Q: What sequence folds into this?
């Protein structure tokens, strides 16, 4: 008989408590005297649990998670690669962890040096003039990049006229959402038959109302945009700026520099390409790299290396878009990325994209024998299969995803991109071994076979996970978003 | 160095299966002239041993490890129980991603549900989301929600909201749409606000305690916002909320803020932990992830991401926000932290902050030349008017192993004599003595 899982609020109770605080060692005064007229709260309905039980609670919860350190995690566009352990150790050094962002430049030279170094390396790797590390995530970077573009157009007196952002229908949802947030209208252009940009559709959408074209390279079906130079040329000819969504930078790193493709600005998801851990959904970091002409608009403050080698924060940037974060962005995440880049060095970095591409192409060719492959070209770091062939057995992509969980691997990204029906977006990353790829391929093949033989087995999947398929409709009908006190 | 694990033989087999002779053939779509003929000239590769040496050296170039911190201004040096690090560093949490497949993510989802529950209780609100990037962007999202909700444009900032929060508001909104109303008392001035705000006001935002550490009259501010048909947005410190009447109970529509102080290191200001709590009526307008309780097919309790039709991956340009991730690991740390401290511990921390900061303030006010900047009641943090420029006091701290506070002159030249001092439960009487000696030394050097 196993003890049932309970929430913290359902455990312990009055009389139980966690680790103790020291007694007050300064003369105490009554709160009413120190805080005259301030209404104090009567009650706080909070857990009362001993430390050992809190430890057990979260340890048990942790065992319910799939994670990279346990097994394959081919979540497309998320780049779930190995997270080196040394990076965690270094980010936790007391000199960094205890640094206060308002301590002043003299007291934080080590942090500032690390920040400048991250920016320099990212600029070199992406082929841009400058980098801001303030944005806390990819979508935050998109927003920042679009504000830079807006400021650029305004500085040229075209801010009012250029109100449109052109986005292909294969784009991540964050692209149009960020464009709206920056006050832009989104114009969606359909992809060509091969899922790459339809130049004719693009040319039609481009006029003097266009502020920017946002493009993901490689695109969300994993293909390098073969006419990317032409896209940039067309955009610039119309007076628009080119934004690159860097979510898929893992395919290019050390091999192709987005700055050389004609882009003016891009964001970098360091939690993807530069291996900082995803933390169950953050923290990430979304540095933004820009070409020379956008540099004056970067968020303040900007870290500047002085003649004497010391770093100071420069606030005197009259054309800056302003701040986008409370302080310096996700600093300790950037430290991890720095450690990662330095660990790999130039050759190691180029090896990342090479093996990421090799692994993806191998899996793609293996799986194309049992699943539909809508775009048969060589892929870059990821590829998209369609589960539409299983429809005749009454099996959906969702069933395939759930059944995969039974084999100890995470499911791919499903139902995205929207332009592929029953999409399964698979990104193996470079840190997977041949054995792991083989195991995943075998699992996928077995599921395809099971679909034909025993569809019900898939409908009822997963069978071996801590809970079975969860009722999402019920969750959203009358959402229970907080615990009730027993 | 790399983390790849393919042997040359395995590579040959893979290339054969793919049907190409050489790797380069896979790059057929990439224009030849953009393919680099050599990798970027970055430094490295460095072994772990070399990396430890280099970053270890840089970490020691910060004063942080040797100096006892009296700094605040939005980021605080609070106690982080050992169990927080031990549990939150488990790779089961660290190396997982957004719980897209809930059947293998119940650990993350349950913890978020507990986080939402605790933040809702702490703020006195009906619901809280899974977290935001930081306090400043949470405040922006609150302003944007208020605009959608009211159809109005103007955002009124009442009193001393953190200058960085105001700066981020001005970046996201048009600066002309943000009206800041300050007062020399250090508190929000209701009469001035009534005059400055009008029927075009979407929301009124105040900070509790405010940037100077002072406690605002939240009841009056909520009433004023509602009088003009605007939403009342309170930007609150969560530890203070363990002690004071939560704004959600006295009329605030949205309670948001920065929760770094709950179990997260200062880390030069990031990653942080924004939180976002609201009245039930605003639920469907919320930004960010939400986790709800449900059951599986056997009726067992489980948790899932919910109300995703608000979000960018479904609603695209019509989404409530472009936010995609939350600050998962920071929220987990806060959840473990609150779980460990519990009902009594969190309240004790808040009371110790009050006792120790008031003790320090009394101490300082008795040192010749120093005076409290403002008279209103404060929580944990206060402004000290110094007999010399505050940066001199900060510099003097090195000798005593103390970071005596934040030089407010870095924000505005007219504040150059003001030092913002935070005293948390971590500071003991001896450290407060050293801090006071720093003030004496700096003040006497006039």
A:
């Amino acid at each position: 008989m196993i003890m049932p899982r309970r929430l913290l609020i359902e455990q312990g109770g009055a009389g139980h408590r966690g680790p103790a605080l020291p007694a007050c060692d300064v003369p105490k005064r009554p709160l009413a005297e120190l805080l005259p007229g301030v209404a104090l709260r009567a009650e706080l309905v909070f857990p009362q649990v001993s430390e050992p039980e809190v430890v057990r609670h979260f340890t048990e919860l942790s065992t319910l998670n799939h994670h990279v350190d346990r097994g394959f995690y081919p979540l497309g566009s998320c780049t779930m690669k190995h997270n080196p352990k040394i990076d965690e150790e270094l980010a936790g050094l007391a000199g960094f962890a205890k640094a206060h962002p308002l301590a002043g430049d003299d007291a934080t030279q080590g942090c500032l040096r690390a920040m400048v170094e991250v920016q320099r390396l990212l600029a070199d790797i992406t082929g841009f003039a400058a980098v801001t590390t303030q944005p806390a995530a990819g979508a935050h970077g998109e927003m920042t990049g679009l504000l830079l573009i807006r400021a650029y157009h305004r500085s040229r007196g075209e801010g009012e006229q250029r109100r449109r952002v052109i986005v292909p229908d294969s784009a991540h949802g964050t692209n149009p959402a960020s464009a709206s947030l920056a006050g832009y209208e989104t114009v969606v252009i359909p992809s060509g038959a091969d899922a790459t940009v339809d130049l004719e559709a693009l040319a039609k959408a481009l006029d003097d109302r266009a502020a920017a074209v946002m493009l993901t390279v490689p695109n969300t079906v994993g293909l390098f945009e073969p006419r990317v130079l032409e896209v940039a040329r067309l955009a610039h000819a119309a007076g628009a700026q080119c934004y690159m969504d860097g979510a898929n930078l893992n395919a290019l790193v050390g091999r192709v520099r987005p700055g050389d493709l004609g882009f003016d600005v891009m964001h970098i998801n360091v939690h993807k390409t530069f291996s900082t851990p995803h933390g169950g959904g953050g923290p990430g970091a979304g540095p933004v790299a820009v070409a020379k002409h956008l540099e004056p608009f970067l968020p303040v403050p900007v870290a500047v290396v002085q003649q004497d080698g010391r770093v100071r924060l420069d606030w005197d940037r009259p054309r800056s878009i302003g701040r986008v974060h409370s302080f310096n962005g996700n600093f300790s995440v950037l430290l991890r990325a720095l450690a990662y880049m330095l660990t790999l060095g130039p050759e190691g970095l180029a090896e990342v994209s090479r093996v990421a591409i090799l692994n993806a192409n191998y899996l793609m060719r293996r799986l194309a024998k049992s699943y539909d492959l809508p775009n048969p070209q060589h892929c870059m770091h990821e590829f998209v299969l369609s589960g539409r062939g299983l429809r005749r057995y009454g099996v959906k992509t969702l069933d395939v995803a759930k059944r995969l969980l039974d084999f100890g691997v995470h499911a791919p990204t499903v139902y995205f991109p929207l332009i592929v029906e029953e999409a399964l977006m698979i990104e193996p990353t470079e840190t997977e071994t041949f054995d792991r790829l083989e195991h995943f391929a075998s699992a996928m093949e077995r599921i395809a076979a099971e679909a034909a033989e025993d569809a019900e087995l898939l409908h009822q999947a997963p069978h071996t996970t801590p809970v079975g398929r969860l009722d999402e409709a019920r969750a959203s009908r009358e959402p229970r978003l907080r615990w009730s006190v027993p | 160095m790399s983390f790849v694990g393919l042997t040359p033989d395995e590579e040959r087999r893979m290339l054969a299966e793919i049907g190409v002779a050489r790797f380069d053939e896979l790059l057929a779509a990439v224009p030849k002239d953009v393919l680099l003929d050599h990798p970027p000239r970055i430094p490295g590769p460095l072994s772990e041993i070399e990396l430890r040496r280099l970053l270890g050296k840089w970490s020691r170039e910060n004063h942080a490890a040797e100096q006892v911190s009296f700094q605040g201004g939005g980021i605080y040096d609070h106690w982080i129980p050992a169990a927080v690090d031990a549990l939150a560093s488990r790779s089961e949490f660290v190396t997982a991603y957004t719980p897209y497949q809930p059947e293998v993510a119940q650990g993350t989802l349950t913890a978020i549900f507990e986080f939402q529950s605790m933040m809702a209780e702490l703020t006195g609100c009906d619901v809280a989301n899974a977290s935001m990037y930081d306090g400043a962007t949470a405040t922006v999202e609150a302003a944007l929600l208020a605009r959608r909700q009211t159809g109005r444009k103007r955002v009124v900032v009442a009193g001393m909201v953190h200058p960085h929060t105001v700066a981020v508001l001005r970046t996201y909104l048009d600066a002309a749409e943000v009206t800041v109303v300050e007062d020399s008392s250090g508190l929000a001035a209701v009469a001035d606000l009534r005059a400055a705000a009008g029927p075009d006001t979407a929301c009124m935002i105040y900070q509790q305690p405010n940037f100077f550490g002072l406690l605002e009259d939240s009841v009056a501010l909520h009433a004023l916002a509602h009088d003009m048909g605007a939403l009342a947005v309170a930007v609150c410190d969560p530890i203070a909320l363990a002690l004071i009447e939560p704004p959600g109970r006295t009329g605030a529509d949205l309670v948001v803020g920065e929760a770094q102080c709950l179990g997260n290191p200062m880390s030069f200001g990031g990653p942080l932990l924004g939180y976002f709590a609201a009245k039930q009526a605003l639920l469907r307008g919320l930004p960010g992830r939400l986790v709800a309780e449900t059951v599986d097919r056997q009726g067992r309790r489980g948790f899932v991401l919910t109300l995703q039709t608000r979000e960018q991956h479904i609603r695209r340009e019509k989404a409530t926000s472009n936010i995609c991730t939350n600050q998962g690991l920071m929220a987990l740390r806060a959840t473990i932290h609150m779980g460990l401290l519990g009902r009594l511990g969190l309240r004790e921390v808040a009371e110790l902050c009050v006792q120790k900061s008031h003790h320090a303030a009394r101490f300082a006010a008795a040192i010749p030349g120093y005076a409290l900047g403002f008279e209103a009641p404060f929580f944990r943090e206060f402004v000290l008017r110094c007999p010399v420029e505050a940066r001199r006091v900060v510099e003097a701290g090195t000798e005593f192993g103390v970071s005596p506070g934040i030089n407010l002159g870095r924000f505005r030249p007219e504040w150059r004599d003001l030092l913002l001092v935070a005293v948390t439960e971590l500071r003991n009487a001896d450290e407060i003595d050293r801090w006071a000696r720093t003030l004496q030394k700096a003040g006497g050097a006039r």
